[in-house]
Specification:
The complex is a heterodimer of chains A (265) and B (98). Chain A has 265 residues and is α+β, with helices and mostly antiparallel strands. Chain A has one domain. In chain A, 26% of the residues lie in helices and 21% in strands. Chain A contains eight helices and 13 strands. Chain A starts with a helix and ends in a 5-residue tail after the last strand. By secondary structure, chain B is of the alpha+beta class. A four-stranded antiparallel sheet of chain B has the order 1-2-3-4, covered by helices on one side. The radius of gyration of chain B is 17 Å and the shape is globular. The chains are: A alpha+beta (265), B alpha+beta (98).
Chain lengths: 265, 98
């Protein structure tokens, strides 16, 4: 949070007019044109389209995987069954089919793009978390591919899907963090979620096998109950892990293997 | 004098790696003393003491012990305790290369 506040201070100062003496000297009232009534916590259709464009540009990381987006629970009270989704602009409303696993493909719509539409679910926005979902078909059960996850991070951040701060500061954080910052370094804190509760995560490429340290599981294992409300891992802590997507010594074809809490792989 | 003391404190802080979180226990003791399907949470506490842990909404708990591996490095020994308070799984992780 401290890091976010440091970043926020100059922005807030600018908004207050402190960095614009010309504005302060004029006696003309400022005119503000509101282009959209989209709620700032709603998902931006434009940003999600930008994420899709990034996927196309960088799909060499995951050449055989399609792009979908996925809705995941963030609050314990949210009912994840029967979710409906639509792209909503000022004059357009496009339904988006949602699959059984709450994943979906975002349709292209030029009117929605022009109107800076929102992507809306029939659930409170803050009750769910959103992710890009990029999965190469045919992987061994209980495993992911590191290149898919690298691209998921870049697309997800570009699309403005991930927020792990209080809603008050989320927009500032979004404005000041780039996919390169989040996905390119060990302090990016991009969280991944396994399909079931995990006990261990191993990386495997050829003969090289490494188990992730405990600090890379369960959001670092340091989250207090109070911290958890700002983590989108709140109700999926036992499925949460960091992957070394920034570490170029692990190629895109590296397998990320899960040992689950219950049962085998 | 205060500046010298401050510099010494800084140097002392840089000179050694801090011990990692988690109670330190010899790895062989852990491997012999913690048996999946048999050891209870109470026995873990009594034998090795409390340590860094994460409690999940499901009732499962993950406990982390650290085993000194020489050269200031530590192996990890992770214990999964099921909602009934019985050790469900264990695993160890060798220290990373320095």
């Amino acid at each position: 949070m401290t890091r976010i506040l440091y970043r926020a201070i100059p922005v807030l100062a600018c908004l207050a007019g402190l960095c614009s003496p010309a504005l302060a000297q004029t006696s003309q009232p400022a005119t503000v044109t509101v282009q959209s009534t989209r709620d700032p916590v709603d998902k931006s259709y434009r940003k999600m389209i930008r994420g899709m464009e990034r996927f196309e540009r960088e799909r060499a990381m995951a050449p055989n995987a399609p792009l979908r987006f996925q809705l995941l629970p963030r609050l314990p009270t949210v009912d994840m069954r029967g979710i409906t989704l639509r792209v909503a602009g000022n004059s357009v409303s496009v339904p988006v089919p949602v699959a059984e696993d709450n994943s979906f493909v975002l349709p292209q719509n030029s009117v929605a793009l022009r109107e800076d539409a929102a992507v809306l679910a029939n659930r409170k926005t803050t009750s769910m978390t959103w992710r890009a979902q990029i999965i190469t078909p045919g992987l061994p059960p209980g495993s992911r591919r590191l290149g898919d996850m690298r691209l998921e991070c870049r697309v997800g951040v570009e699309a403005g899907l991930v927020s792990n701060s209080s809603p008050l500061f989320a927009w500032i954080n979004d404005a000041l963090t780039s996919p390169e910052q989040v996905c390119g370094g060990p302090n990016g804190n991009y969280l991944f979620f396994a399909d079931r509760p995990i006990f261990a995560v191993r990386l495997r490429h050829g003969a090289r096998v490494e188990t992730l340290p405990f600090t890379m599981l369960y959001a670092g294992g340091e989250q207090s109950k109070a911290d958890l409300q700002y983590c989108d891992c709140q109700v999926m802590l036992d499925r949460t892990f960091y992957a070394p997507i920034w570490d170029a010594s692990w190629p895109d074809d590296t397998l990320v293997e899960f040992e689950y809490m219950e049962g085998g792989k | 004098m205060k500046r010298v003391l401050f510099a010494m404190l800084l140097l002392a802080g840089c000179a050694s790696n801090p011990a990692p979180p988690g109670t330190q226990v010899d790895l062989a003791r852990l491997q012999q003393g913690v048996v999946a399907g048999a050891t209870t949470k109470a026995q873990l506490l009594a034998t090795f003491g409390p340590t860094k842990n994460v409690v999940f909404d499901s009732g499962y708990e993950a406990w982390l012990y650290q085993a000194p591996a020489g050269g200031g490095r530590f192996s990890e020994f992770v214990v999964l305790i099921d909602p009934a308070g019985i050790v469900a799984k264990t695993r160890s992780r060798a220290p990373s290369a320095p």
